From TrEMBL:
Classification lineage: Eukaryota, Metazoa, Ecdysozoa, Arthropoda, Crustacea
Record bears the keyword Cytoplasm: no
Segments of skewed composition (Low complexity): 1-14
Protein name per its UniProtKB record: Deoxyribodipyrimidine photo-lyase
Record organism: Daphnia pulex (Water flea)
Similarity comment: Belongs to the DNA photolyase class-2 family.
Annotated function: Involved in repair of UV radiation-induced DNA damage. Catalyzes the light-dependent monomerization (300-600 nm) of cyclobutyl pyrimidine dimers (in cis-syn configuration), which are formed between adjacent bases on the same DNA strand upon exposure to ultraviolet radiation.
Cofactor: FAD
Length: 523
């Protein structure tokens, strides 16, 4: 195994040459060639093949990789290479799996994938687990076609992964990257549990520019990270080569997964049901990307803050579970630059800069979900105004049930609980009102994170934590005019929403109403 980056401050091997993209001579080629979803998917497949026949014929950028073990040399056990899948739940467009296949092809070894299923995870309900399992079922089917062994393991990774390594006599392990505490603890525990002679590395296949390459510190905001990321896009925003049918079969085959048994293994709340407006899996995610490009992208720049209009991508659930790649989304959206330049630029800002800023915050700030993670000015202003009289004091139950004096807030909460999604603009208003209506900023943040993680398909995500922290604690923002309760934290109100969109129409859409609360005036 050649030596990749081994610390947060990534090493600097020679820059890779960017493969020529299909749209490099005509940025509008995707838009002009494809008019149906099947053609869209076929065109993506063609782009991968045009990029390279396989990962061995592609110059893989080793800056994507962090070596976690002291051992660098592959062993001679001969059992194969293991890709431990967690955050990136897809086969194609996955740099971690591609790197694992690169090692396996180079050493002529079998290729295995494992996923460790735990019965509970940070309050996730069947809404999130069901979406994930159906996506993983698609992963298994694709792996079978590609002669890659997919193992669904039940239990903690620090037990399951070392056991599989020993059982199959595996030669190296490639893992996904997540900046969050629990997944990072999984990595640390597995690192201590696997044989010392087995190389162990981690690939950031979630961000276009790996988080440790984009910056070596917590960034103040989008304005400080934007140039750092944009300066590196030519190096990292490349087409993907395909994951191919693996030519080196495994002696020990993976057992076919009993998906009903996997569902029965879960110990989760099933009262928050799965939603039917969205279909899990990579194929459906890419079809939704096509729908966005064809129907909604043209409105994205001007209309994305209007919750009454279908102008958003709706891709966050698939992106959260890694069922589609953000890099693939950008590659395809860029093809519409000539037709919808402002919208393409706006989408790239949100999907690259803002999204990767969230990973940066969570990676370099272990207090990404509590007030200690806020800037000093924000902590101070919230403390000064902690005892200010609130215009309303509402219970967690009133908030969860959407029974407040604010019909717009209630409609937003109903959208979240009913659909597993809340419009991005309303997420800001929603969280800021929780600050205004609860006794302390600590309680507000706790409730906002709880509700988001319980009901949203993309809960427990860096972007979700950062969204709550921005709204309540002012991270990635600046101080504003002092006011009660908020101090210098940016304020949003009902009248401001009325100026931006038709509030009555949105409230009517979800059948919401205001509930009278004694002593409380309407905003």
């Amino acid at each position: 195994m050649s030596k990749p980056s081994s610390s947060k401050g990534a090493s600097k091997p020679p820059a890779t040459k960017k493969p020529k993209l299909e749209s490099s001579d005509d940025e509008d080629s995707s838009a002009s060639l494809v008019t149906d979803s099947s053609g869209f998917l076929a065109n993506i497949h063609l782009k991968r093949k045009k990029c390279a026949d396989n990962i061995l014929e592609f110059k893989f950028n080793k800056k994507r990789c962090r070596l976690l073990s002291k051992s660098m040399e592959l062993g001679d056990c001969g059992g194969g290479i293991l890709y431990w899948m967690s955050r990136e739940q897809r086969v194609q467009d996955n740099w971690a799996l591609l790197y694992a296949q690169r090692l396996a092809l180079k050493m002529k070894l079998p290729l295995h994938i494992c996923f460790c299923l735990v019965p509970t995870f940070l309050g996730a309900t069947i809404r999130q687990f069901g979406f994930m399992l159906k996506g993983l079922e698609e992963v298994e089917t694709e792996c079978q076609k590609l002669k890659i062994e997919f193992h669904l393991l039940k239990g903690e990774s620090q037990i399951c992964v070392p056991d599989l390594i020993t059982k199959l006599k595996l030669d190296a392990v490639v893992a996904d990257f997540s900046p969050l505490r629990v997944p990072l603890s999984w990595i640390d525990k597995v690192k201590e549990s696997i044989p010392k002679n087995v190389p162990f590395c981690q690939i950031d296949a979630h961000n276009i520019v790996p988080v440790w390459v984009a910056s070596d510190k917590q960034e103040v905001g989008a304005r400080t990270i934007r140039k750092k990321i944009n300066d590196k896009l030519d190096e990292f925003l490349t087409e993907f080569p395909p994951v191919i049918v693996h030519p080196h079969p495994a002696k020990t085959k993976a057992k076919s997964v009993d998906w009903k048994a996997a569902d029965a293994y879960l110990e989760v709340d099933r009262t928050v049901g799965e939603v039917d407006w969205i279909t899990p899996g990579t194929k459906s995610g890419l079809q939704e990307l096509f729908n966005f490009c064809q129907r909604r992208l043209k409105m994205y720049a001007e209309k994305r803050n209007d919750p009454n209009l279908a102008a958003l991508s709706n891709l966050s659930p698939w992106l959260h579970f890694g069922q589609i790649s953000a890099q693939r989304c950008i590659l395809e959206v860029k093809g519409y630059k000539t037709k919808h330049a402002k919208s393409v630029d706006a989408y790239m800002e949100e999907t690259i800069i803002r999204r990767e800023l969230s990973d940066n915050f969570c990676f370099y700030n272990t207090n990404y979900d509590n007030l200690k993670g806020a800037a000093n000015w924000a902590q101070e202003t919230l403390e000064v105004h902690k005892k200010d009289k609130r215009p309303a004091l509402l219970s967690a139950q009133q908030l969860e049930e959407g029974k407040t004096h604010d019909d717009l807030w209630n409609a937003s909460q109903i959208q979240l609980t009913r659909t597993g999604k809340m419009h991005g603009f309303l997420r800001m208003y929603w969280a800021k009102k929780i600050l205004e209506w609860t006794e302390t900023p600590e309680e507000a943040l706790r409730i906002a994170i709880y509700l988001n993680d319980r009901y949203s398909l993309d809960g427990r995500d860096p972007s979700g934590y950062v969204g709550c922290m921005w709204s309540i604690c002012g991270i990635h923002d600046m101080g504003w005019k002092q006011r009660d309760v908020f101090g210098k934290i940016r304020y949003m109100n009902y009248k401001g929403c009325q100026r931006k969109f038709d509030v009555v129409a949105f409230v009517h859409r979800f059948g919401a109403r205001a509930y009278p609360i004694k002593g409380v005036k309407y905003d």
